[in-house]
Design brief:
The chain contains 18 helices and 12 strands. It is α/β, with parallel strands linked by helices. It folds into 2 domains: 147 residues, DNAb Helicase, Chain A; 291 residues, 3-Layer(aba) Sandwich (Rossmann fold). The strands form 2 sheets. Strands 1-4-3-6-8-2-9-10-11-12 form a 10-stranded mixed beta sheet, with helices on both faces. A two-stranded parallel ribbon has the order 5-7. A hairpin with a 4-residue loop joins strand 11 and strand 12. Helix 1 crosses helix 7 and helix 3 crosses helix 4. The longest helix is centred in the first third of the chain and has 30 residues.
Amino acid sequence: MFEQLPPHDIQAEESVVASLLVDDEAIFKVAPVLQPRDFFREINGWTYEACLALWERSETINQVTVAHELDRRGRLEDAGGLTFLSDLVMNLPTPIGVEHYAQIVKRDATYRQMIGVATRIAQVAYEGGPDLDDALSRAESLVYALRSGERIRDFVHIREFLDPYLNPPDAAGVVPFGGNMRTGISDLDLLLGGLNPSDLVVVAARTGVGKTALMLNFARNAAVGQAAKVAVFSLEMAGEQLAQRLLAAESRVDSARLRLGLHSETEESRIMHAHGVLSQADIYVDDSASLQIPELRAKTMRLQRDYGLDLIVVDYLQLVHGNRSDNRVQEISFITRSLKELARELNVPIVAGSQLSRAPDQRTPHIPMLSDLRESGSIEQDADVVLFIYREEMYTSRDDWERLHPDRRSDPYPQGQAQIIVAKHRNGPTGVIDCQFVDKFSKFQDNPAEQFAGEPVLR
């Protein structure tokens, strides 16, 4: 058995590459599925890599451009020259069904990875050692890594994550989408003028402060309030968890009670209504745990072509894979630049979450600033808008608040109070927006006690 060649299908590989040379739409179907390393025959992998490079530069893919790209990389002669590319096209039975060819190539690549994992497990066994549990754990980790990388995720309509809760009724009251998208927080909309097409908007906060909740607020308001079509890349949270958050915020039912099914009959009615509203919203969720920029680009372009697209949400930047640079700052720079280019190319706003460094925790007051952006520099440079979320209650208990502010006894402890700090606004003013954060619903909302007046300044 081990004297055989590893699993492969040269005809399927050549059909994938040939389809890219003759069908302008094929790259959108293949890029989310295949990597150059998935090809068994090296020259097929080189050719596919050249096609990807052209596509990422928004250049046409055909025999001439691919030949030029291979030549630029010093591989055209080794691949067989123009004759090789011509033969690929001549031997292609049909470009229809390129997804099927791609799945064959991906399947065989996974089988080859299985062989590699088996070899590494055998090595672990031969090395032996006194700790059997450790050896078994290492073997299990190898198998788990293979399985976790096997599943190719794609957009799933939010309805599929919501359906396990109940059957949706009809939804109504949708305001048609038009112009800039509103965030759902009135003062923020007044300051920003809504979310502008082609803008890259970065939402940054320390862990647990609510950046995912705020971005879901934006997505919900665009899809439900303005009938916009929204793509959500949820790299940190599974689609079911994301749907639960949206349902809790929409129904105003405690997310813990919702998860455990402990809601009352009154709450059940609100859940049914919220389910119907969200199920009719055009929110498409991709909860792939691992995502590269070419995949993100291919999926959003295909979604725009097939259904339309008005807003993209990415949660969050540091989980996206860039150009695999050893320098993390350079990789983040590539990611933010690519997202900005994609926003302009699709003419839609992209809202991306970002982590902050620990610097705000180590100073007083703990208000974040632009230099706190993790792997900063490029994020600040490429973003059109940078929003920070600050909640004083995250840093100060009620007792500490009263002890530190003896002269402000009349002021209530800032429980549920949040500030959205517009730290950068390329095309307008910066400022601070006061709003409310309802933790049990994971929801940001207008603060009824304060109204936006004029042009706020940073405090």
